[in-house]
């Protein structure tokens, strides 16, 4: 698999027609909590909630035992000397750390193919693009489906920056409107 710097623009790979189905706000909300994110949610819960809670309980227990040994009783926390509320900057720093760790993702609009064969042809062309260039962008996917120009109004700049390096988990599924390719999350393909 030889990766070139500038992949050439893809040609329409299907014989029939395809149309863009804009995602509703509810569908976009559901996509945020898709199965792909379960690992990220699990990692966040373990590293940012469970482990710190266990650590804090262990430290508190050690402190209480030490106080009981040296003072004969557990000492209470001292009250703050002023009535000013305490400002915690932890959320600011945690947010910054999470933003560095979070992968950048963008999902393309759903493309409805009129036939199963067209959806398969599009998926095959997307796979060939990855085999040839090491990646395929969202813009490549739209070109392959023939939904660029008047039919699709999108952000061409980010459509070229996000895509896939592997679509082996992708598959064609039936909907009431036609056929859709279920693709993995599109990630930033500019690096590497």
Structure description:
The chain is elongated, with a radius of gyration of 25 Å. With about 190 residues, it is of the alpha+beta class. It has helices at about 25-30, 40-70, 90-100, 115-135, 140-145, 155-160; strands spanning about 20, 105, 110-115, 135, 160-165, 170-175, 180, 185-190. It has six helices and eight strands.
Share of helical residues: 40-55%
Low-confidence stretches: none
Radius of gyration: 25 Å
Spell the H/E element sequence: EHHHEEHEHHEEEE
Shape: elongated
Going across the major beta sheet, what is the strand order?
A: 2-8-5-4
Features:
single chain, 6 helices, alpha+beta, 192 residues, 8 strands, two-stranded antiparallel ribbon
SSE diagram, text form:
Layout: E1 18-21, H1 25-32, H2 38-71, H3 90-101, E2 105-106, E3 110-113, H4 116-133, E4 136-137, H5 138-145, H6 156-161, E5 162-164, E6 171-174, E7 179-182, E8 186-188
Antiparallel strand pairs: 1-3, 2-8, 4-5, 5-8, 6-7
Summarize the structure.
This protein is an alpha+beta fold. The protein is built from six helices and eight strands, in the order βαααββαβααββββ. The strands form three sheets. A four-stranded antiparallel β-sheet has the order 2-8-5-4.
